């Protein structure tokens, strides 16, 4: 994973890391040498166990060590528990999390948690949902490539909603979630409504949302935008790469883009099937409104045609509406490699790649490709009474495990 801008620099003697050592830590005896090294530090800001494999007994020992040592639980700000369960059985993963996650709840300063690249799936959702809902110090959650699926994704959305509610109940109120990264999780449309409500609950606290490679189709994207993103008015990074927008969701995104005109830094729509009319709608916004902070615009492999680049993108650049744009990705679209427009763009962007362009269709084919025939039910927006859903969520105790986990003594 690329370096994340929100990750702070710690003093070297406050970081414990065994990252990427491929250690198989199953028993107490296996983990004891690492715990001995951990306890040599007088103040621990970060624990990085990523790239090893944990068993149940080792997980229990780590949890006990965290919760019984003030040098850890009073100071811990970041944990990286990515890629922890290679070769482990599902039952082992479930029980491991039942030890580790309650221990993290005992750390009042812990605000960065990375649980990516673990095969959690649906079996672990009780523990994850309960942890997220109660982790009131949490500001940056990285939860990618976990095999969630739409039902687990829906419950993650509900947990985010409860997290915001629990943060706001504190005196003083805890900062809302700033970063939510949940890519490669097969979230699909089924998770989109409650996920949207969960993100909405964090309002202008959210700065970064990455939902790449989730198989979300137009109606799901529209749910996310209409019931979620548009309330996150301070979004700096929006990454929807490798989901499906087509014309309908693209138009809704275009209608809401001005919300972020003063804050947006990166917009990633690579592989989103914007198609001709969808791309036109999005680029039209840039011709009319200045986005002074937009640094990266990624729209590769979207069936964008030459006229959109010539009439929309070049116009926006000439109008100085994208003054900070330094990263432009337009490869894989239906463009003329020898055109003056692409020559112009290559002169403006040193790292512009245009080595995999599609051939432009004939006029007849282009007419056939028109987005005017979007009749697929999945590409129409469906109004939902979300006020009732939010009311129900506020009245609902997330589950009996939640309170138990929050009070667990290890």
TrEMBL record:
Domain of life: Eukaryota
InterPro entries: LRR_dom_sf, RanGap
Biased composition regions of type Acidic residues, renumbered to the chain: 359-380
GO biological process: nucleocytoplasmic transport
GO molecular function: GTPase activator activity; small GTPase binding
Keyword Phosphoprotein set for record: no
Keywords, sorted A to Z: GTPase activation, Leucine-rich repeat, Repeat
One of the record's GO cellular component terms: perinuclear region of cytoplasm
Protein name per Swiss-Prot or TrEMBL: GTPase-activating protein
PANTHER family associated with the record: RAN GTPASE-ACTIVATING PROTEIN 1 (PTHR24113)
């Amino acid at each position: 994973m690329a370096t994340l801008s929100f990750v702070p620099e710690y003093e070297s003697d406050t970081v414990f890391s065994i990252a990427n050592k491929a250690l198989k830590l199953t028993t107490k005896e296996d983990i004891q040498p690492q715990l001995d090294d951990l306890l040599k530090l007088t103040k621990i800001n970060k624990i990085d166990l990523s790239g090893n494999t944990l068993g149940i007994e080792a997980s229990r020992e780590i949890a006990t060590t965290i919760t019984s040592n003030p040098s850890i639980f009073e100071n811990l700000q970041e944990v990286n528990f990515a890629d922890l369960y290679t070769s482990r059985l599902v039952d082992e993963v479930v029980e491991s999390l039942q030890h580790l996650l309650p221990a993290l709840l005992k750390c009042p300063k812990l605000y960065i948690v990375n649980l990516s690249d673990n095969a959690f799936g649906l079996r672990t959702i009780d523990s994850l949902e309960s942890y997220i809902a109660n982790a009131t110090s949490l500001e940056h959650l990285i939860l990618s490539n976990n095999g969630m699926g739409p039902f687990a994704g829906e419950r993650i959305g509900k947990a985010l909603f409860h997290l915001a509610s629990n943060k706001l109940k504190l005196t003083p109120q805890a900062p809302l979630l700033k970063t939510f990264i949940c890519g490669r999780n097969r979230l699909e449309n089924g998770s989109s409504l409650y996920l949207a409500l969960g993100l909405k609950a964090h309002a202008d606290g959210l700065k970064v949302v990455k939902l790449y490679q989730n198989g979300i189709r137009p109606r799901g994207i529209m749910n996310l935008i209409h019931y979620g993103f548009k309330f996150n008015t301070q979004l700096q990074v929006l990454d929807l790469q490798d989901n499906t927008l087509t014309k309908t969701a693209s138009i809704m995104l275009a209608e809401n883009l001005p919300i972020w005109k003063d804050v947006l830094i990166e917009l990633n729509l690579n592989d989103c099937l914007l198609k001709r009319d969808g791309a036109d709608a999005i680029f039209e916004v840039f011709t009319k409104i200045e986005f002074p902070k937009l640094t990266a615009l990624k729209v590769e492999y979207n069936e964008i045609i030459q006229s959109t680049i010539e009439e929309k993108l070049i116009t926006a650049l000439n109008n100085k509406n994208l003054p900070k744009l330094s990263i432009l990705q337009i490869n894989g679209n239906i463009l003329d490699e020898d055109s003056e427009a692409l020559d112009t763009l290559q002169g403006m962007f040193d790292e512009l790649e245009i080595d995999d362009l599609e051939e432009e269709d004939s006029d007849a084919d282009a007419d056939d490709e028109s987005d005017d025939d979007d009749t697929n039910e999945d590409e129409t927006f469906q109004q939902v009474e979300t006020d009732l859903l939010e009311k129900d969520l506020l009245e609902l105790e997330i589950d009996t495990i939640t309170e138990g986990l929050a009070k667990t003594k290890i």
